[in-house]
Specification:
The protein is mainly α. Helices cover 72% and strands 2% of the residues. The chain has a single domain (15-316), classed as Formate dehydrogenase/DMSO reductase fold, CATH 1.20.1630. The protein has 13 helices and four strands. It has a two-stranded antiparallel ribbon with strand order 1-2. The protein starts with a helix and ends in a 16-residue tail after the last helix. It is found in: Cell membrane.
Length: 359
């Protein structure tokens, strides 16, 4: 325990600070990988589902796990609060409105999945389907805009964000919002192709063929702009080469996913490569965030007067206790979630839903 408290990384950052930054990054990446296809499936309800029974099948593909996937987001927020209270305080106070929009979207989506089946009335189901669509579109768009702004760097003063809300919607930020929506649509369609059979599966593959290459183009443009104009190079280390390597992996993996799913009908490989693309994209973003935590850094100001991985962190004792608790409980949680996916791993189709019972 003492060694963990006193050790530092090559960049001079305490080891525990780096460990918890990486753990938070893993939680966010896990959220986007798992919840990304949940968002995509919900947004695809009116596109892939032509009637109530087919839309019921789409809901069933994510029904057993969508709420468990959201836990990754809650845990990421909780870990940020505990490990980097300064980071948490600045984001949740300065970016209150965007976070409120995300919360509204998640509430709409949760209500949709929980209450859709409470009535056989077709209009009732259509209303909650739209709740699910809007509730998935809003978080995708807002999170895309938000993470693009983290790449650019948020202005801060006295350890708090001091920027303008409307200044968050620059060209690169809007590109991030569009990318996230399109990427999750393709990720969701790939997942539907993996989890269904019959007409819905064929429509999902056709959707990937039509929209997938647009997602590849958006991904390539986003990572090129990121690495060119906002490279991962700061006083905390030069990770430019790592950023470029992750950018190339993200684009090539997504292209491979589109090719495998839409042209070769290899849904398993398509899903794996699509997931790899998301992991590489967000790994590159968090490489950029390392040290600066997504805030601009004025090097003329003393490091202890700027919001960064040093000033935002909790005490060494707190980080040490959290580390040991994570070592004990994290494998249990991961094993349980992996088991739940294994239990519900079979494909579904309209044949699994009896006639007259579609809600």
């Amino acid at each position: 325990m003492f060694l963990l408290e006193t050790a530092t990384t090559l960049t001079g950052v305490p080891l525990l600070n780096t460990i918890w930054f990486l753990l938070i990054a893993v939680l966010w990446i896990g959220f986007f990988f798992l919840e990304g296809f949940d968002f995509g499936v919900a947004m695809l309800l009116p596109i892939l589902g032509r009637d109530d029974k087919e839309r019921r099948v789409l809901v069933n593909t994510i029904g057993p796990n969508w709420d468990g996937n959201e836990v990754w987001l809650l845990t990421a927020g909780g870990a940020t609060f505990a490990a980097f209270p300064g980071w948490y305080a600045s984001l949740f106070s300065g970016l209150y409105l965007p976070l409120l929009l995300i919360l509204v979207g998640l509430i709409l989506r949760g209500v949709a999945f929980e209450y859709r089946s409470k009535s056989p009335d077709a209009q009732w189901r259509r209303m909650f389907d739209w709740f699910a669509i809007v509730g998935s579109f809003l978080p995708s768009l807002v999170l895309g805009v938000g993470f693009a702004n983290f790449v650019i760097g948020l202005a801060n003063d006295n350890l708090l964000w001091n920027g303008d809300f409307f200044g968050l919607f620059g060209p690169f930020a809007l590109l991030g919002g569009v990318l996230f929506v399109v990427l999750f649509l393709v990720h969701g369609a790939t997942f539907v192709g993996l989890k269904t059979r019959g007409r819905i599966q064929h429509r999902a593959e056709a959707f990937v063929r039509r929209v997938g290459w647009a997602a590849v183009a958006l991904m390539a443009l986003f990572v090129f702009c990121q690495q060119t104009f906002h490279p991962a190079n700061s006083e905390f280390g030069d990770f430019t080469l790592v950023g470029w390597l992750l950018a190339v992996v993200a684009v090539l993996a997504l292209a491979g996913s589109v090719f495998m799913t839409g042209h070769r009908s290899r849904e398993g490989w398509g899903f794996v490569l699509g997931g790899l693309s998301i992991v590489a994209l967000f790994s590159g973003i968090f490489v950029r965030l390392y040290g600066n935590l997504g805030f601009t850094q004025d090097v003329t100001v003393a490091a202890d007067q700027r919001l960064n991985i040093l000033t935002a962190a909790a005490s060494e004792t707190t980080l040490t206790l959290m580390t040991w608790a994570t070592v004990i409980f994290l494998p249990i949680v991961l094993a349980y979630q992996a088991w739940s996916y294994w239990v519900f791993s079979r494909r579904v189709s309209t044949k699994n839903i009896p006639d007259g019972i579609v809600y």
